[in-house]
Amino acid sequence: MRRTIFAFLIFVLGACAPLPSAPSASVTASPAPSFPVTVTDFQDKPVSIAKRPDRVVSIGPSNTEFLFALDAGDRVVGVDDFSDEPAAARAKEKVGGVKPNVEKIVSLRPDLVVSVKISDGSLENLMSRGIVVLVVNPQSAADVAKTATLLGRAIGADGDALASRIQSGLDAVRAKAATQPKKRVYHEIDASDPNKLFTVGPGSFIHDVITIAGGVNIAATASGQYPQLSPEEIIRADPEVIVFASFGVTPEQIAARPGWSVITAVKTKRIVKVEGSLMSRPGPRLAEAAEAYYQILAATR
Amino acid sequence: MRRPPLALSLTALAVALGIAVVAGVAYGAVAIPPERILAALGGGADPTETAIILSLRLPRVLGAALVGAALAVAGSLLQGMLRNPLADPYVLGTSAGGALGAVIGLLFGGSLGLFAVPLLAFAGALVSVYVVWRLARVGAQTPVVTLLLAGVVLSAMSGSAITLLEVASDRLQLRLSTLLGLLVGGVSVISWAQLAVAAALVAVAGAIGLAYAYRLDAISLGDDVAAGLGIDVERTKRLVLATTALLAAAAVSLAGLVGFVGLVAPHLVRTLLGPAHARLIPAAALAGAALLVAADLLARVALAPTELPVGVVTGLVGGPFFFALLWRHRAAYRL
Question: Nearest-CA neighbor of B245 among B67, B97, B136?
Fold first, then answer.
């Protein structure tokens, strides 16, 4: 549970980061990798990288997945405690969980640290020691393609190819789903407080995945990427499908929640649990996540 | 000051509670117009609105009323028995002990079903109220300083134990999604079955309290006075402590740690109706219920659509009240 909560916190905390409003320069052009290179990170900060990084520390499971997807896995010398995909990432040195261990990172002598946004000062601490830190904090589906390009340039790999592979995967799912009837979807992330259930809102990649896969997110008008809904609002919205990743919850418990018996998804038993990292990370497997979501909705049609 | 007649006071408090309940049911995350709320209460409306009103809002509001009543009666009993205006299940750590029991019930009480949480909460509350009482007692007196200190330490220990269980249970892969809410105190989603169990506990405890009202009056004048009247003081005190634990357990199993209602409600009522327990107990129950329903409503409205835990509201309102009491009595307590 702690892992789940922390992993969840990582992307909720990340959600607080102001996203660049306009696409950064890094998206537009990506010539053959050459160093030195200056890229613009997710905090709109220019970051100069002098030579092709050989020792990369990755903080954030999605960043780790990206680095491996860019064939740079052998250059990764350290990852955060939650990075468990792909399997090879589990063998890497661990540099801490929600709070990165600065000493450990320094001892790995990285020439590049790629990290999600972390506000406890540890990234600034690393920078003050002369370590190059690139903040990569993807939130939406659009951010995912942008991340592939950005990381490709930062480490000297073909990020554009990865970005277009992800994009074409998403487009394929979108095309399939377009011919299907739309379904109202409630996606539950966390039910620790039974009165304020965490779901996904606009700007989060799961919201995008729902839309691409042919669903209509009942929290589409909520504010924030991870809004909380009261059970009253969920009952009123009457979802046709309930998808949940909340820890320690079973479909039977959801169906038995007070008042939920009137919800269409409960009456028709369309309550589906999603487990594992596929649906919890805005990473290079986003198209697979969209396909999985499409299958969930297809099974209910 | 002439005291208003009991019937009038009780009626006024019941009206206040009624208004709070109506407001609590009328306001919610989803706006439903009054005529449709009435239709939903009659069961003849649109099933979605009926579900919202009958399964979510009404049990929540009634739950808040029950928790408020339980804590207020518990506070009245403790204050009378300990002859101490600062006593209340939250301050004395009884609620925290109950919360520890409730957590154990949540984690391991699967086979006991609906009764696991209240039962273990009762055990926890009973142990803690007894420990505090024995620790604080010096001869026939329970000096306020030792009482409060014992309560503080017990609350801290229970809180640590809850955190320990939370962390350890993560390793044991146990489910405790409701755990985090317990420590902050909040009335949220309550089933009718939970409500019925808690209502039965509060009814039994309230009846015992009323039956012992006269003996409590005597004890609050002094143990020697009570003994002189032929009352078995020790036995009465034990029973009153157990009753308090029962009330705290009912409150904790519905809403976690809600502070200061048990302190504020009896004091308000006492200034109005005087200290006689036969008057104090029913009036404090109504006042506590109305206060907590109102606090819960405030918690929902203040930062809407975000909801505050009701414990935040009672803490912010009740904390200063506690300080005011300390200030007024500081000479007597030599604080």
Answer: B97
Interface touch A192/B307, C-beta < 8 Å: no
Quick one: which of B212, B170, B194, B168 has its CA closest to B77?
A: B212
Contact between B187 and B208 (Cβ < 8 Å): no
Closest CB to B56: pick one of A228, A238, A259: A259
> What is the enclosing helix (H) or strand (E) of A94?
strand A93-94
B109: left (phi over 0), alpha (psi -120 to 50) or beta: alpha
Secondary structure of residue A107 in the 3-state scheme: helix
For residue A61, say if its preceding peptide bond is cis, omega within 30 degrees of 0: no
Prediction pTM value? 0.79
Q: Flag whether pLDDT at A6 surpasses 80.
A: no
**Residue A56 reports pLDDT greater than 90:** yes
Any idea which residue has 């540099």 for tokens? A95
Task: List CB contacts of B242: < 8 A, sequence separation 6 or more.
Answer: B126
* CB-closest option in B56, B173, B177 to A258: B56
Tell me the nearest-neighbour CA distance from B299 into chain A, angstroms.
Answer: 13
Element (H, E) at A157: none
Chain-chain contact of A193 with B180 (C-beta, under 8 angstroms): yes
A-to-B residue pairs, Cβ atoms closer than 8 angstroms: 82
Tens of pLDDT, residue by residue over B241-275, are 999 999 999 998 888 888 888 988 998 888 888 88
- Strand partners for A58: A79, A114
CA distance A63 to A159: 13
Task: Determine which of B36, B52, B297 to mutate to test the interface with A (most A C-beta atoms within 10 Å).
Answer: B52
Using the beta-carbon criterion (under 8 Å), do A236 and B47 form an inter-chain contact? no
With beta carbons less than 8 A apart as the criterion, state whether B129 and B248 touch. yes
Q: Does the structure show a pLDDT above 70 at B107?
A: yes
| DSSP structure string for B240-255 | HHHHHHHHHHHHHHHH
Nearest CA in chain A to B47: A262
Instruction: Give A209-232 pLDDT, tens digit per residue.
Output: 999 999 999 998 888 888 888 898
Name every chain B residue with its beta carbon within 8 A of the beta carbon of A191. Answer: 177
Q: Is the pLDDT confidence value at A7 over 60?
A: no
How many Cα atoms occupy the beta-carbon half-sphere of A92 within 13 Å? 34
Taking all residues of chain B, what is their mean pLDDT, rounded to a whole number? 85
- The whole-angstrom separation of Cα B126 and Cα B249 is 9
For residue B179, what pLDDT is reported? 58
Q: What are the residue ranges of helices labelled H in B83-178?
A: 94-108, 116-136, 144-171
